[in-house]
Design brief:
Elements: E1 2-4, H1 6-15, E2 19-23, H2 27-30, E3 39-40, H3 47-54, E4 61-65, H4 70-81, E5 86-90
Parallel strand pairs: 1-5, 2-3, 2-4, 4-5
Length: about 100
């Protein structure tokens, strides 16, 4: 896992043709907006979260975010434990996101 600043995250994401944006917030939080192209899997689902991770392509690069950066750091650690090599945590999370937002 690597913690990336907003600038690093956006820059690296733009240049990564194998990127997957993962939003680990709750559905209620997602209703307030999300980063375009993100797929949501709520980390609070516990085993359900792990089940959904198993459906993902482990060869991709995962750009993970939550509201403030804490849950996404936890998600990256879990992902690394189950075989995902490239996980990038957005420092400061969606709360500090300055980029484009979809609703």
């Amino acid at each position: 896992m690597m913690d990336l600043s907003q600038e690093e995250w956006e820059e690296q994401l733009e240049q990564d043709s194998n990127a997957f944006i993962l939003d680990v917030r709750t559905p209620e939080e997602v209703e307030d907006g999300y980063i375009p192209g993100a797929q949501n899997i709520d980390i609070h689902l516990g085993q359900g979260f792990l089940d959904e991770l198993e459906k993902l392509d482990k060869s991709k690069s995962y750009y993970v975010y939550c509201r403030s950066g804490a849950r996404s750091a936890q998600a990256c650690s879990i992902m690394n434990e189950v075989g995902f090599d490239k996980t990038y945590n957005l420092e400061g999370g969606f709360m500090n996101w300055q980029g484009e937002v979809a609703e």
